[in-house]
Every structure is written in structure tokens, then in C-alpha cells.
Amino acid sequence: MSIKVVLPTALARHTDGQKAFTSDAKNLPGLIAEFGEKFPALAENVKDENGKLRKFINVYVNDEDIRFLGGDGLEFADGDEIMLIPSIAGGLL
Amino acid sequence: MSESSCTVYELKCPECKKGFGNVPLSACPDCLAPLEVQYDLDSVRGRFTKESVAAGPANIWRYKELLPIPEGHQPDLPVGFTPLVKADRLGKRIGATNLYVKNDAVCFPTLSFKDRVVAVALANAQHFGFDVVGCSSTGNLANSVAAQSTRLGLRACILVPSDLEPAKILNTQVYGAKLVRIEGNYDHVNRLCTLIADEYKWGFVNVNLRPYYAEGSKTVGYEIAEQLGWRLPDNIVCPMAGGSLIRKIKKAFAELVALGIVEDKPVKFFGAQATGCSPISHSVKNGWDDIEPQRPNTIARSLAIGNPADGPAASKMIQSTGGYAEDVSDVEIVSGIQELAETEGIFTETAGGVTTAVTAKLYADGRIGKDELTVSVITGNGLKTTDPLVGKFAEERAVKPRLAEFDAFLRESDASLITGVAEEEVELVGGTK
Ligand SMILES: [Zn+2]
In terms of Cα–Cα distance, which of B316, B368, B415, B410 is closest to B100? Predict the structure, then answer.
């Protein structure tokens, strides 16, 4: 089983320019852990102090926000496309 | 892409505090936090005064010292400075004695508050050298980008949810903008635009130009303060879609206080949403500092953003001011539209129905005191969303052009009007006029 991971340009700085790659992570925590092995710089960048994905990053599984699908509890299926996108939220100033 | 030499303002990361100068960029390249425009207020001090504002044009450019406008940009479109209306008739109906309506239903040129943000965004788009500008929109933003880009000689490509109100689609296409209908809701459209902005060299007003765009909302706050005689209200009731406007009104007030233009005082902020899409009001009611995304289902499509970008920040801000957020049903929204039109002669779109109905509810529930100075922010014109009102008014029979026929008709349909005429006659006969 494998999934496709798609990254925005801003994050591809930490993957030697790769904007897409395959992974065999089974869920989101697994994927983040895998970042740590494959792309330490990326892992450093997308995680907050608790080791969770930063709140400014939205995760889509195929076309759906992962929060509608069970979030961390969602088991990825073979062929899923996982997309990380910075949320275009306003900040805290 | 040229970089502005302006030092009065620059993009700043609210998380890691890095500054980025002035570039078309929405998120911090390091921590991905959304960037915001920060001003060096000390360098504005002395240049932004009550007198300098009063000497400016009767539109948002009177506040240009506090807007992120590139040096040398000559503002052309007279946008904003909309009426602040003392709403005594509406107030009487809902139990308010000191209620104002900020009426952006008449904001030139496309009749919504989005004209403000687009004016600021496109000034920057031009400055950064974009040939094509774009946006994702629930309608009003599309109308405004289409109109103003034409005026500035920029081409526009606009993406909207496919089920948008027909008038809003037409009001975009008429300016010659390329309109692409996307199968999905606003959140789907927005995600696609993020990807397009990442791929194409376009200036997306609500993606890579977003920090500048959002600052345009502050002008609603400046105008309210100025129109109240340079003082702040007790309460603001503001519709929330992405949650940006309500925060920017607060930022405007804070800047005026920091510059010594208005006296500091606590202002409570109240957010208004449709129950069918109420992630921010849901968050406030639960005392959360985050939001849970929703799948929108409401007639208030301009507020139908299930995953609001500024939602968490708006929720936190509202709670920190001691305000509240409320939401209303589609039936209440239509009543709100009618109530504002019948009492104040302001025809607002569904979002204004939301705000009016929420305002009434806040008074009824005692969350706003009867005599407090309250401003209800109306953001768009009803002519664009007439669909929810279709069938709301009886279609009466046509009357023959004869006085007797007309008289008979009035007696059967609304006899109270005839009493008025009779009294007028008596007064004239008695020679009292
Ligand atoms: Zn940062």
C-alpha cells in the first residue's frame, strides 16, 4: 500500500525541491514520523512544539479536509493523495 | 517584482516575528504562519491627524497613511466613506435607543465592503507588476475584483462555487472578467486558488496579496470612529465569513487609540453568522480558541465559509473583548432583511439579514444594553441576492385606471392608507396648513 504526498512550494525547500513523493505511512501521525526519517528539515518545519502538525497547515485527503474524515485517526487507503497546504488564515497581530 | 522602499509598513510573521519587507506573500516561508502588515505608527504620527483626514477625499483614501499603499500610487477609485445611519426606527422595533447601521450596501463601485479591500489589494498588484489578478469568492469579492481590475487595466480570472447566486455571476462577467465556476463550496474553491497561486504567476487578492487586501477592511473602523465624531462605540456587531473584517475593525480602533486620535475605551465585538454555517459563533459559544470546520448549508452564501481562515483568531478576539457571537436561521435571515428595509430603507443582502437578526437577538437576550452605543455593520447590497425574497410578497391583482376602482382596491387590501388621506383633507379644509 502506498500514498502520494503533495507539498506546496514553500515546503519543497526542505525536500530538495520535491513537491510530490510516495509514502507508505498508514495515517497522519505516521506520515509526520516518516518526514522525520526522510526529510528531517521538513519535519522540523511542519511540526509544532508538541510534535503535532502546525495549526497553519491544512491537510487534505483526496479532496477532503482531514478534519472531516477523522483527523489523526483516519487510516489512509492505497492510492490516497495527501496534500499539505498552508491555510491562508490571518495571524495574531 | 519590485520591492517597495517604503518603511512605514511591512509584512511580518506573527509567530516567529520575522519581517519580509513588501512582497506578494501570504505565509511565512519558515513557519507558514499567515503574514500581516505591521506599521511603524511612530512614523505615521503627525501625518495622520483629524485635520489631515478631514482634508482628504470623501473615500477610503482619506486614511491612506494607515493603508499599505505603495509609494507614488495615485488612488483613482472613490471607494468607501459609506453612511453611518442612526437607526431609530429599527431600534424602536428591537428595543435599542442608540443603534447605528454602517451601510456598506452602497459602497461604490460594486455595492459591498469588498470594494475597500480590493482597492488596496489591486494597488499592490499593480505595484508588484502582476498582469493577471484573481480571487476565490462567494460573490461580492468577485464583483469587486472584476470591476476594479478593469478600471486599472489588469486582467482578471475569478473562481466561484458553481451554485452562486445568478446576479453575482452576472455582476462579475459583465466587466469582462474570466469567471470559472468550480464544483464545490467556497472552501474547495479557496483550496484550489491556493494551489493556482502556488503554480501561476498571478496576483490572487485573497492568497498572495492577502496581507494587503485584509488591511483595506480597517477603513470600516476608521469611518465608524470618524463618523461618531472621533469616538469609539460601546459595541460592534459584525458579520463573519472568513473572520477577517471583525479583527480589522478592532485593529483600526487600536491604531486610532495609539495615535491619540480617539480616547481609549473598551469596545465589545459581537460576531454574526448563519446557523447553517456557524463555525466561529459555535467556537465562541463554547469558549474555544479554535474552530471546528463545518459543511455550509445556508442561504447566506456570502458568509458560507465552513473553514474560516481567520476563525480561530476572530473567536479569541471576540471573547477577549467580552463580546459574544450569535447565529440565526435562514427564516430569521429573511426577516432581518425585511426588517432593515422596512425600518431604515436599507436593502441588504443575506449577510446583512444575518447581522440585523443577530443584532436583534443580542438586544433581546440582554447581551447588549438598551442604551449602549452600538454599530451594526451591513456589508452588501440586497439587489445581488433577491432570490431568498422571491414569493415573500403577495402579487395583487391589477387595478383599472379609475379612481373608484383604485378606492375599492385600497379598501379591500389596505384600508389604513385611506385614513391617512382623509385626515390630510380635513387639515387642508380647516386651513391649518
Ligand atoms: Zn514565521
Answer: B368
